[in-house]
Amino acid sequence: MEDEAFVYHARRPEMSKRKEAAQHCISKLRQTSVEMNGKYDEYVSLMSNARELSRNKDIGALSKLSHHQVEEFMSEWNQSYVKTFRVNYKFSILDSLRNRRLCHGGRIEFWDEDRQTLEYIEHGSANHCLNFR
């Protein structure tokens, strides 16, 4: 029993450090979640506003909203903390592009199965399809 108590007391500082690290990680994740939810809410609000303006055919206000968003984005892009903003933007955009099967430049990205399909069409199968007309 005394040995178990000694082992517990010896491991206690290590367990406390792990607990603090886990709590810090959870806190950071919660903070990130709140920030992301805020950005999503802002996006939904912006899109509903743009949808309403287009529904009302208010081209002037829609153009003004668009220019405001571009100016806001460019001001963040050109700030002193550019690297953080650009890295965050790049990773968020890359996920979106990847989900839509587009490459970094926004062009269609051919994956292996797409390449095999194109090769199949180019080499002979297209001729067979044409003969069935």
Automatic annotation (TrEMBL):
**Membrane topology annotation:** Single-pass membrane protein
Lineage: superkingdom: Eukaryota
Q: Where in the cell is it found?
A: Cell membrane; Endoplasmic reticulum membrane
Q: What is its main location?
A: membrane
Q: Per the similarity annotation, which family is this?
A: Belongs to the plant Proton pump-interactor protein family.
Question: Which PANTHER family did the record assign?
Answer: PROTON PUMP-INTERACTOR 1-LIKE, RNA-BINDING PROTEIN YLMH-RELATED
Name of the protein in question: Uncharacterized protein
Q: Which organism is it from?
A: Hibiscus sabdariffa (roselle)
